[in-house]
Structures are given as structure tokens and as C-alpha cells.
Specification:
A: Cytochrome-c3 Hydrogenase, chain B; three-stranded mixed beta sheet; 50% helix; B: alpha+beta; SH3 type barrels; disordered C terminus
């Protein structure tokens, strides 16, 4: 695993498999950093350059750059800016969940794809960011299309029976999709690593600020107080009554819980948008002598932007993406891969696909299987 | 940190379009944005066209990706990849 890093970045997975069980797993995430493009430039130019590169989680990346600029300028972003960012991130999160649940997962299990909701959102996102009534109407219609009206107690309460009944009756294409996914994802990709919690965001920024200055490899293999965390929708939904009940029952999370957490997060975001509830953005920042840093919760987990600037311009700029946590060499992806059992290589490859998609559907990976 | 790549539609049908960027061709799923006429610029992620771009947006993203690739090869004169931006007035020493 020593080839050059492609501009698009890559996750590399290498498994040693004895024909039945995986005996060894290596995970490496490699992405080019933007520092070389920004060195010597005025800090404000990062705002123009970074969104051009990382345009696919473009709102989250843009918000991180804008927030970092605000921290550099005045020490802290103002509340109006944070409210605007929170709405952009909420809409981006909805868009990403609709994309994965409407297009990617149906393709994997051979169900018809459902592009209409995400296509509508992509077409209207500029208007929805300011026209709350239009966004709310769209969210209400989309919620009904995705979830229907019956047996929805599981969306707010710890009621696995209600969920099972909804899946069994399959009143919507989403329910039918999830009913087919559940047996394939249950028990797949277990990880006992701790969840990253929102309350850890500010402490993590405080410790990561000097670490990024002193450790040139921190962005490849981050940790907080020596610990690697799982990031993303499941940790964010861990306190949801249904997720909490299922976690208490099964002990460790699996791929089914990760997908279910995305569904619950999507339902909650659509519901809050429909009801006109202001979104909350998990964001933290810190300014040092020459370095500044922002971390925010986006759809895939915590996104960190760190910058070192001197009067002549930017000296260094690094981004720590959620992928670097979930696909950390000692992270939850590796934990799950080490538990894989498959009778043949095609089934092993399919299990890897399902596990990676459940942990982070955005990740492109290369898989190498060595026969032990 | 997924990079989007701008690609131009060469051939199209209802769901899939053959697209090209700098000689590289890919068949992109068009379900997210609907069928687009030949010549349209789109932003590609994996095998999906994610959004329609103006020619100016496509040029800016294309040059930024080229700039990143040049930086990865060790090139240091990268201002040409951001021709629409004001050049840095001073360049600090690289670390």
C-alpha cells in the first residue's frame, strides 16, 4: 500500500483471510492536504480555494473556512453567522442522507432507486436556505413519502416492535429497502470503540490545536487523549430512545444500527424543518498565537480545519476529515473488518462493501485480499 | 474531503451520460440532476453527476484540482491555477 495518493483521496483496506475468517486487517486513509496551495496566501483566499476543491461536502467545508476566518478576525464567530451555517449544514445533511438512502443502498440490494427527493432538494437548496415556509412544506411532503403515517412510534420511542411492524408492512419504498437491508447488516461491522460525543468537541479542539502544530502526522491518524472514536450519525443518535434500547440489548453497534441512525437523523431533520425549529450546529473553535482551529459536526462526523498564519500569509493549513477517524488504522472500520467471516471471496467483498457503506457511504476504497 | 471533478457531457440518455475531463471518460449516473444536453458541465462524484456547473465554475474547479495534483508532484509555482484570484502579495517561507 505505497502507491501515490490520487487527488481524489483513497482509503486502502488490506485483509488477510484464511478462506473462512479474516485474521488481519489494515486500514489506511490517504488524502492530499491543501497546504501547498495556500502557503503564502492571505487567509481570506482559503475561502475561495477550498470550496472549489472539496465541493461535495461543500457547505460543511465552506462553513469551516468561514468560521476559521471569523476566529482569525475577531476571536469568535457571531451568533447570526452560526445560525446561517446551522441551516446550511442541516440542508446538506438531509441531502446526503436522501442521496444514500434513495440511490446508493437501493442499487446495492437491487431495489428501484428513488431520486426524486434529493433531486428536488438539489434544485431548490438556495431557495430553501432562506424561504423557511417552502422548505417546511417540502420537508413535510418528503417525510410522508419516506415514512408514511402508520407504525411510526419507533421514530420517537424505544419501540423495536413498532419498527419491526413498519418494516414488515413496508408502507413506503424506504421501509421496503430497510426490511431487505436489516438481515444483511445485522451483526456486520461490530466495533467496541467509544462514540464521539458533542460535549467532547471543545476539549478536543483545545488539545488538537497544539497537536496539529507539533505532530505532522496528526491529520492522518488523529486521537483525543489517546483514544480513537467512531464519528457520525450513530454517535449523534446514541441517546435516541430506540438506538439506546437496541445498544443496551446488543452491546456493540453494528452496520444495521449505523444505517438506522441515519434514518432517524433524516427523520428528525425533516421534522424540525417542517415545524420551523431552528437547527443547532455543533461547532467549537480555538485561537492560539499563530494557529487557529475550527471543528464542526457535519453529516459524516467532525470536520476540523486548522491554520497557521503569520503576517506574510498562511504558513500551513490542514484538514482532518471524519474519514480519518472512522478509517483510522486503529478505528471502527478495522474493528469491524477483523470480525468478518465469509465462505468465499465474493461474499467477503460484498460484506466489506456493506460495512463500509454503513460506516461512511461517501468513502471510495481499494480492497486487497491476501490469502493467509 | 471528497473532491468533485468537473466533466462535460458527450453523449446522453435518460439515466446515464458519457462524460469527459481532459481525455478521461466516465459513464455517469444522471439520476440526481436529470438528463442534460451535450456540452453541459457537471460535477462528478464517483459514478454520479451531482450537480450542473456553469462553464466558469467548471473551469475554476478543474484548475483547482490541477493545482492540487501539481502540488502533489512537488511543484511550487501554483498561482496559475487560480488565475482569477489576486496573487499573494508576499510568500512566507514554507515549513
Amino acid at each position: 500500500m505505497t502507491t501515490a495518493i490520487p487527488a481524489e483521496g483513497r482509503v486502502e483496506l488490506r485483509l488477510e483471510w484464511d478462506g473462512r475468517v479474516v485474521q488481519r486487517a489494515e486500514v489506511r486513509s490517504r488524502r492530499p492536504q491543501p497546504a501547498a496551495l495556500l502557503t503564502g496566501r492571505a487567509p481570506g483566499q482559503a475561502r475561495a480555494i477550498i470550496p472549489r476543491l472539496y465541493s461535495l461536502c461543500g457547505d460543511a467545508q465552506s462553513v469551516a473556512v468561514e468560521a476559521l476566518e471569523a476566529v482569525l478576525r475577531s476571536g469568535a464567530p457571531d451568533s447570526n453567522a452560526i445560525a446561517d451555517w446551522a441551516e446550511r449544514i442541516r440542508l446538506e445533511n438531509i441531502r446526503e442522507h436522501l442521496w444514500r438512502l434513495g440511490l446508493d443502498w437501493p442499487r446495492v440490494v437491487g431495489e428501484p432507486q428513488q431520486p426524486a427527493p434529493v433531486r428536488e432538494l438539489l434544485g431548490e437548496r438556495t431557495r430553501f436556505a432562506t424561504d423557511r415556509e417552502a422548505a417546511g412544506n417540502w420537508a413535510g411532503k418528503t417525510f410522508a413519502d419516506l415514512f408514511g403515517h402508520a407504525n411510526l412510534a419507533w421514530l420517537e420511542n424505544p419501540e423495536p416492535d413498532s419498527l419491526a411492524q413498519w418494516l414488515e408492512e413496508a408502507p413506503t419504498p424506504l421501509a421496503g429497502l430497510l426490511a431487505r437491508l436489516r438481515p444483511r447488516l445485522t451483526g456486520l461491522g461490530p466495533s467496541a470503540l467509544p462514540f464521539f460525543r458533542g460535549r467532547d468537541l471543545q476539549p478536543m479542539v483545545q488539545t488538537a490545536l497544539p497537536r496539529l502544530q507539533s505532530d505532522p502526522d496528526f491529520h492522518w491518524r488523529p486521537d483525543h487523549q489517546g483514544q480513537v472514536f467512531e464519528m457520525g450519525p450513530l454517535p449523534r443518535q446514541a441517546a435516541h430512545p430506540l438506538i439506546a434500547a437496541m445498544l443496551a440489548c446488543q452491546g456493540v453497534p453494528d452496520s444495521w444500527l449505523r444505517v438506522l441512525a441515519r434514518v432517524l437523523e433524516l427523520a428528525g431533520a425533516l421534522d424540525s424543518l417542517q415545524r420551523g425549529i431552528e437547527p443547532r450546529l455543533g461547532i467549537a473553535w480555538q485561537r492560539g498565537a499563530h494557529e487557529s482551529m475550527v471543528a464542526l459536526e457535519m453529516v459524516r462526523g467532525v470536520l476540523m480545519h486548522w491554520q497557521e498564519a503569520v503576517p506574510d500569509g498562511i504558513r500551513d493549513y490542514r484538514i482532518v476529515a471524519p474519514t480519518e477517524w472512522n478509517f483510522h488504522p486503529e478505528g471502527p472500520a478495522r474493528e469491524g473488518l477483523l470480525q468478518l467471516q465469509a465462505p468465499d471471496e465474493p461474499q467477503l467483498r460484498e460484506m466489506v462493501t456493506l460495512q463500509v457503506m454503513a460506516l461512511d457511504p461517501c468513502v471510495q476504497y481499494e480492497l486487497e485480499i491476501l490469502h493467509a | 474531503m471528497c473532491l468533485g471533478i468537473p466533466m462535460q457531457v458527450l453523449e446522453t440518455d435518460e439515466c446515464v451520460a458519457l462524460c469527459e475531463r481532459r481525455g478521461e471518460r466516465r459513464r455517469l449516473n444522471m439520476m440526481l440532476i436529470g438528463p442534460q444536453p451535450v456540452g453541459t458541465w457537471v460535477l462528478a462524484l464517483q459514478d454520479h453527476a451531482r450537480e450542473v456547473l456553469t462553464p466558469e465554475q467548471a473551469r475554476q474547479i478543474d484548475e483547482a484540482v490541477l493545482g492540487l495534483e501539481a502540488a502533489m508532484r512537488g511543484e511550487t509555482d501554483l498561482d496559475g491555477f487560480f488565475s482569477d484570484l489576486e496573487l499573494p502579495s508576499a510568500v512566507g517561507p514554507p515549513r
